[in-house]
Amino acid sequence: MTRTRDIIQRPPGTADTDEMQVVIVRVSDGVQRIDRPGWKPCNTWKDEFWWTDGNAGCDCNRRMFFARAVEPNEPEPACGENECGNTEFYVILRSPVAAS
Ligand SMILES: [Zn+2]
Questions:
Q1: Are 95 and 21 a contacting pair, CB within 8 Å?
Q2: How far, in Å, is the centroid of ligand 1 from the Cα of 65?
Q3: Nearby residues for ligand 1 (ion, Cβ within 5 Å)
Q4: What distance in angstroms lies between residue 60's CA and the mean position of ligand 1's atoms?
Q5: Exposed/middle/buried for 83, CB within 10 Å: 0-12, 13-18, 19+?
Q6: Among 5, 38, 84, 85, which lies 20 to 30 A Cα-Cα from 76?
Q7: CA pair distance 20, 98, nearest whole angstrom
Q8: What is the whole-number distance in angstroms between the Cα of residue 86 and the centre of ligand 1?
């Protein structure tokens, strides 16, 4: 299922191996958090599909990644307490912004 809210900001000429930054946005309040790559295959442009249409396209996983962006040890929610969906979060995929 394509998450039409997702925003892809891939610059022209970007290679699949170039670094990608994932911003997870909670729709209810607009809070944005930068994802921590961690164990996930998520930090180059080859992972774009995984975020938009793969496992990370679902609210259940985005909810966990959103929590872990500020609390790395946030446990996985118990079964039945983490509903699937595609309306609670969207992502912005972009090239990393240089630190100022
Ligand atoms: Zn799900």
A1: yes
A2: 12
A3: 58, 60, 84
A4: 4
A5: exposed
A6: 5
A7: 12
A8: 8
CA Rg value for the chain: 13
**35 within some domain:** yes
Cα 82 to middle of ligand 1, angstroms: 8
Q: Is 99 within a domain?
A: no
Residues of the domain holding 26: 7-94
Residue showing tokens 């979060």 = 89
Encoded amino acid at 81, one letter: E
Q: How many domains does the chain have?
A: 1
Tens of pLDDT along 44-76? 999 999 999 999 999 999 999 999 999 878 777
Ligand 1 centroid–CA 87 distance in Å is 11
What is the predicted pLDDT for the residue at 87? Answer: 92
Model-level pTM? 0.86
